[in-house]
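--- STAGE predict ---
source: upstream dedup step, 1 unique chain passed
mode: sequence only
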Amino acid sequence: MINRNSSIHLQDFPNLSFLPDEKELVADMDLVRNICSVALAIRDNKNLRVRLPLSQLVVIGKNAARILPFSEIIAEEVNVKSIAIKEEISDFAELKLQINFKKIGAKFGSKIKEITGAAKNGEWRKISEKEIEIAGTILEGDDFEIKLATKNNDEKKFATLSLPTNDYLVQINIEITKDLEDEGIARDIIRAIQQNRKDADLNISDHINLKIFSDNLRILEAAKIHENYIKEQVLCESLSYCESSSDLKSSAKFSYETTLDEGSLFAGF
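--- STAGE serialize ---
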């Protein structure tokens, strides 16, 4: 007979019915996840790697203040310096109706022209999430799609995208200053060296004396600006800059070359 007390894996799952339902917290966390997902989609669309910090993310919509207790989580997840909120979504976007004419053509052939005109003029009424009334006709299911379309957006400075639920917008300042770029390069250097440590089979607690070299002056400049941060992150006792890759290789036990967006980085320790 199996002794069920011998392992936690053989125990019954505990009854958690006594715990209160946190419906509001669950809804808020669902919103936070959606915001992060949309923000990361914006980064991907704009080719802004996640290690490159951005200055600000703004959540726009009614009762946007509900996300403020989770600001640090959002900021860390999408790598932005600050989180802000705005309530008036109508200042930044409007609901646009997109009709699946290919699908409804067979059903409402004689009214297509009238439906088209009403859609263009915004003359329609939402009945439910899956049903609208337009030109005296009821469209349902995938006959249509309602999306938040941005307006008055400075596309050179901001990227704005709606949540799938169409109740909030996520707006990110995509202007890249030199300070942000320097920090992004420093984070890339850290990632590269952490991988180098792994390739050298170092223990996670091992400290190193680090040497780096690059033909790209921006990489070296960013490394010097954020030297203390780099040393802290990679457990580095000392950081020195070599004159050439050959000098680095000849003076280090382990040496690696990593290609960053800005150019090649040589690291040795």
